[in-house]
Amino acid sequence: MNKPVRDLTPEVEVSDPLALLRRPFPANQISKLPKESRTQADERKASRSNGVNCTVCGGWHHKNAVHLDYVGHAALTDRLLDADPLWTWEPVAFTPEGLPSFDRNGGLWIKLTVCGVTRLGYGNAEGKSGGDAVKEIIGDALRNAAMRFGAALDLWHKGDLHVAGAEPEADEPEVHTMASAEELAANLLRGCGSKEMLKDTWTRNEAGWRGVMDEPTYLRLKGLTMRLVKQFDEQSKPPPAEDLGISEDEIPY
Hints:
Layout (H helix, E strand, L loop, with lengths): L16 H4 L9 E6 L2 H9 L4 E3 L6 E3 L3 E6 L1 H11 L4 E4 L16 E7 L2 E7 L7 H17 L5 H4 L19 H15 L4 H18 L2 H22 L17
Antiparallel strand pairs: 1-4, 2-3, 5-6, 6-7
Helix pairs in contact: 6-7, 6-8, 7-8
């Protein structure tokens, strides 16, 4: 039985907490992000006359910069709590010191779990550094991962995602969403660095995956998990004594 959730649009009944994430955000929760071109940024730095104290976003930027709609960290967190008060996130990898591991570009891959379903996200602060940059990266990663659940999807898309009366295109059948879910789940499983991590990922996500996938898709994912477990088992076996040397098949020609 699904738990009750706060209804953001009373005219539509919500029975699935994950469906709540796809609700459009109200205007008061949508912020404006100024976006300068490289030329505009150079012009502003060269002369203050090209800058303006913006009454739209409250920032200082080129007078001709455009604004992008986005949902901030607080509004997104509020929506996640509405859908699942026990939602969590964690980095995909950790440093030897136990801290989140950033990639070579300074970005962070995370796993966002809502209602037992886990999806990947990526955040970056575009070359910034320091504590504020880390917080910005986390917020960016959460928004990116939440978008995989459908949160603020209309703001990420430049056009109209859903037009009333429009027919679905022939090259995008209804199974497209299921294929995407399977691909994301498979990538998450393949990214596990140990057998223990793989088993833990499967245990935590199996129920959620089975709930959104049809039976053949779920069975393919289960088969992939079993093959990956077998690979870890094979890797942990010591080689036979006669195979310790280089065989003819391994000689690079």
